[in-house]
Specification:
250 residues, alpha/beta, Rossmann fold, seven-stranded parallel sheet, three-stranded mixed sheet, 8 helices, 12 strands
Length: 250
């Protein structure tokens, strides 16, 4: 029992965070689902000292959905600075951050710019860390399909895609948190790489939506222009287990 850990999950009530909390608890670890809902707020610093007391690691999956570059950058930078400072004071050994594959190449997108600023805040903090950059989630495909739909046609970027299930993301984050800090960035992606349009088409077909899906090189990724490999890892990466067909079936 001496190997059991206390892990604080910032954003622990959200899509990824709640799965990470359950995985930790199922393995016998103490998991704190930190959220502003329960008085723990990384942006303001509220509740951090008490939550981090005795913690071995922190998994940060906090999120703010915005395309206001100043607002999203401020949120991620401030939260990360508060967190890493409080972690050092509490003796937490490992900070694990969830980010996005190729965030540095997609910084024309305001959200990606915010994530990149978050990464930089963690790296420069002096706290031991691992940054896990994931590709887009299977659970985000519905949003993508809707965002690119207009006049009965879904026109998407002409790029490769390698989405990953939220469950696989949570597993990778937990494994990272229980391991030693890498002081580096690692990539995480799903088990299948194919054209962006093929995943959107598979999702729509599963939902009984027959609208045509077209790849167009002129279409950007929410403000960021993309090449063929902009949304997929370019080197070694951790591979998830769950295929898009398995996820759709489930």
């Amino acid at each position: 029992m001496t190997n059991l850990k206390k892990v604080v999950v910032i954003g622990g009530t959200g899509l990824i965070g709640s799965k990470a909390v359950k995985l930790l608890q199922d393995a016998g670890h103490e998991a704190v689902a930190a959220s502003s809902r329960n008085g723990i707020n990384a942006y303001t610093g509220e509740g951090l000292e008490a939550a981090l007391t005795g913690a071995d690691a922190v998994i940060d999956v906090s999120n703010m959905m915005s395309f206001d570059k100043a607002a999203i950058t401020d949120f991620f930078e401030t939260s990360s600075r508060n967190l890493t400072s409080a972690e050092r004071a509490a003796g937490v050994r490992h900070h694990v951050l969830l980010s996005i594959v190729n965030a540095d190449q997609l910084a024309a997108n305001p959200y990606m710019a915010g994530k990149l600023a978050q990464e930089e805040a963690v790296v420069s903090s002096g706290q031991a860390y691992t940054i896990v950059r994931a590709t887009q989630f299977h659970e985000f495909i519905e949003t993508l399909a809707g965002a690119y739909a207009a006049d009965g046609v879904v026109k998407v970027p002409d790029t490769d895609f390698q989405p990953i299930a939220a469950s696989d993301v949570a597993s990778a984050l937990v494994e990272a948190a229980l391991g030693e800090p890498k002081h580096a960035t690692v990539d995480l992606a799903g088990p299948e790489r194919a054209a962006f349009e093929s995943f959107i088409r598979a999702y729509l077909a599963a939902k009984g939506d027959g609208n045509p899906v077209i790849a167009d090189a002129a279409v950007d990724y929410f403000g960021a222009s993309v090449a063929k490999d902009s949304l997929v890892p370019g080197g070694q990466y951790i591979k998830g287990r769950i295929t898009i067909a398995e996820w759709l079936k489930a």
